[in-house]
Amino acid sequence: MASSHRAIFFTILLLLAVAAAATASSAGGSPLSPYYYSKICPNALPAIRRVVEAAVSRERRMGASLLRLHFHDCFVQGCDGSILLDATPTIDSEKTALPNNNSARGFEVIDMIKSEVDKACGGKPVVSCADILAVAARDSVVALGGPSWEVQLGRRDSTSASRTTANNDIPTPFMDLPALKSSFQKQGLNERDLVALSGGHTIGFSQCQFFRNRIFNETAATIDAEFARERRASCFAGSGDANLGSLDGSPARFDGSYFKNLVEKKGLLHSDQALFAGGSTDSVVKGYGSNNGRSFWFDFASSMVKMGNIKPLTGNRGQIRVNCRKVNA
Ligand code: HEM
Ligand SMILES: *[C@@H]1O[C@H](CO)[C@@H](O)[C@H](O)[C@H]1NC(C)=O
Ligand SMILES: *[C@@H]1O[C@H](CO)[C@@H](O)[C@H](O)[C@H]1NC(C)=O
Fold first, then answer.
1. How confident is the model at residue 293 (pLDDT cuts 50, 70, 90)?
2. Atom 9 in ligand 3: which residue has the minimum CA distance?
3. Are residues 154 and 28 in the same domain?
4. 44 and 114 part of one domain
5. 303 within a domain of the structure (yes/no)
6. Ligand 3 pocket member 236 (CB < 6 A)
7. Which of 69, 109, 126, 269 has its CA 20 to 30 A from that of 133?
8. Is 72 designated active site?
9. What is the per-residue pLDDT across 103-161, written as a single tens digit (0 to 9) for each?
10. Percent of the chain with pLDDT over 90
């Protein structure tokens, strides 16, 4: 009796393990592969890395800007390079959507990468702009001292863009936890992905207009008073909309200080602090803020792969753009 129960128990365990493995392989089992270009253009990835490294050494912030471009690409129609398309009578450019207008940057670096990567591939456009964004995001994080990961490749480029979707689906800095969670859930990303990926704010800057209300109006219950006072020295009540504040204390270093800041109520954006404000994500934030960000690094890398898998165009859908700003003629 006991042994037959045990047999059933282990059979169930085995079935669960098989199911889990199948789920994992279908999640990672998008048609993308890290080796997609190893035969058709083995020099593609080194070419991308060279341009990213040069751009980041010219201006450290560019690493942050390139990471953000991939995020804003993936949340709108999937990771399909749609954010790169300029406006035309038939292209509803995402560049002027609220979260991007006078905010998203790095488009010239992407153009430079595209031109170098085409040269490295024998003068032919074989690497998609969507893949360039994914690789540039990884190389940027590495250039600023963060973790590395194998980038899944083989995405193709969209022939359309959607300003409306960009306005609706890219989360805003004024959101509370439930809205942030549902924004990420809509993309197939869970609460842990939300926290890990928000750690992207360990690098880069925000304009005053996105955190003004927080530093002037929020109370000591949610913001450290000294931190708010310091930030008011360069972000004023009635002016300085575009003045920059660093998202954490070391905006050119990919470290764990973003999460330590949150535990001290020193998140810059309302949406940052929402991850540590007495809700269900508090414990994850605390964990990432301890042990020098090691567990954060690991989870960030795996959530970046997951984000990069959002609705890629593969097979004969989409195209490989000749110019990342334009649909092919
Ligand atoms: C969770 C929801 C998120 C919200 C509400 C949000 C919001 C913002 C805002 C308002 C800015 C400042 C933009 C400006 O001042 O022009 C910003 C910057 C940035 N965001 Fe996010 N973000 C979120 C998630 C992410 C994710 C998932 C990543 C990447 C994994 C990311 C990476 C960045 C980076 C690197 C910057 C700095 C860019 C630069 O300095 O050019 N953010 N974000
Ligand atoms: C985008 O910003 C420019 C200023 O650079 C402004 O003139 C334009 O109206 C903005 N577009 C939208 C759609 O908000
Ligand atoms: C503070 O909040 C009030 C009421 O919502 C708003 O009118 C005011 O503009 C806010 N102040 C700043 C500096 O954002």
1. confident
2. 213
3. yes
4. yes
5. no
6. no
7. 269
8. yes
9. 999 999 999 999 999 999 999 999 999 999 999 999 999 999 999 999 999 999 999 99
10. 89
